């Protein structure tokens, strides 16, 4: 068998702090293989082709790709699969041609409802909670207005809400999305009956956690800090886990 390597792909941001959080998480990944982080956009000289070439220079022939995205319902997962030649047929129009990767490629799943992601959210929820039996937890994600992708968002978020309710004992646990936008409606329906805790399902803090979601909460009594998945050491552990699962299954 050839040499294994890992390419972690995140969306990217023009904000240095956002990129630094991703790089910090990737730097803490402990695997018996070289690990490189790349970005879909907005980060100069850190594109997917640049990451692939960096791994090739280290002799990598078998590439395990980790999409650092909250949900497999993200259309960016489809884009990544197309670029890497993993998805020959896509459900969305693609402008770019597939890359000449020159390696055997396996694409891991997104974060979704992985047990380590549940642990991250449980930690965030505990920080907000005072009496779970009288509280309602609302998970807020980006979502999608594209058929097929919305359903994947919903499946993952429903599972997360159910697991967190069972784990922490909330009176209710549900979810809402900015696409299609049902955040305010969901919060208003709960705020008259419970102390409402709101957790954003976002990799790192940014426009959605600081501006878009708070705008939908105006005038509604909720508990919200906007804390995202990063920084958390469990993100690094999640990367290790999905890669090791792929290797153990013989897919790489």
Describe the structure.
Keywords: Lyase, Metal-binding. It comes from Laceyella putida. This is Sirohydrochlorin chelatase. With 252 residues, this protein is α/β, with parallel strands linked by helices. The chain is elongated and about 60 Å long. Helix 4 (115-128) runs antiparallel to helix 8 (233-248). Strands 2-1-3-4 form a 4-stranded parallel beta sheet, sandwiched between helices. A 4-stranded parallel beta sheet has the order 6-5-7-8, sandwiched between helices. It has 2 domains: 3-111 and 232-248, Rossmann fold; 115-223, Rossmann fold, CATH 3.40.50. The mean pLDDT is 96. The relative contact order is 0.16. The protein contains 8 helices and 8 strands.
Short overview:
The protein is 40% helix and 20% strand. By secondary structure, it is α/β, with parallel strands linked by helices. The chain is elongated.
Find the CATH topology of the largest domain.
Answer: Rossmann fold
- C-alpha termini separation: 9 Å
Basic shape: elongated
Radius of gyration, whole Å: 19 Å
Going across the biggest sheet, name each strand in turn: 2-1-3-4
CATH class membership of the largest domain = Alpha Beta
Please indicate the count of domains: 2
